Amino acid sequence: MTGIRDAYGPAVASLKGKGSDITAQYRLAGEWSNQVGEGFRLHLVLLTDGFQNVGVDLGKRAISKQEAVELANKTDVPKLPGASVTVAGLGRVAGSPPRSDIVEGLVNFYDALCKKTGAAKCVSVTDYTSEGR
User: CA distances (Å), 99 to each of 23, 60, 67, 104, 132, in order?
Assistant: First the structure.
């Protein structure tokens, strides 16, 4: 424990600022799901521009659907069976909007990532709206 405590400060100081690790939210959702146990259904809503830059930088260039699936397959996410996952706001940034092919790559990546979790419902969109009837 002392080794961890001693290394913590320098490790935090070495992190680059303005990091965005959106996929980490899946891990936190998995932890919540494990803590509450069966009998609860996870409805995960992530409001994000989608531009992950920790581990993988999704804003450098447009990625094809196949590249998005391959990238999602290399990303560790927990199993979230029965969950409903919505990732909304993709491509919505302050300033100049990204090209539509870049946003399409984001949608494909987050769709593939959600499918990898085994969620019952996966929605990846640019605009969030609550479900209607």
Answer: 22, 11, 17, 9, 29
- Separation of alpha carbons 62 and 105, rounded Å: 6
**Residue 59 · residue 53 · CB < 8 Å:** yes
The string of pLDDT tens digits covering residues 66-116 is 999 999 999 999 999 999 999 999 999 988 999 999 999 999 999 999 999
| Residues 79 and 118 sit within 8 Å (Cβ to Cβ) | yes
* Residue 23 structural domain: 18-125
Task: Evaluate whether residue 6 is within a structural domain.
Answer: no
Pairing of strands 43-47, 121-125: unpaired
* Residue 37 belongs to a domain: yes
pLDDT band at 21 (very low <50, low <70, confident <90, very high): confident
Q: Is the pLDDT of residue 52 over 90?
A: no
Q: Are 31 and 44 in contact (CB under 8 A)?
A: no
Residue linked to tokens 């690790």: 21
> Total structural domains in the chain?
1
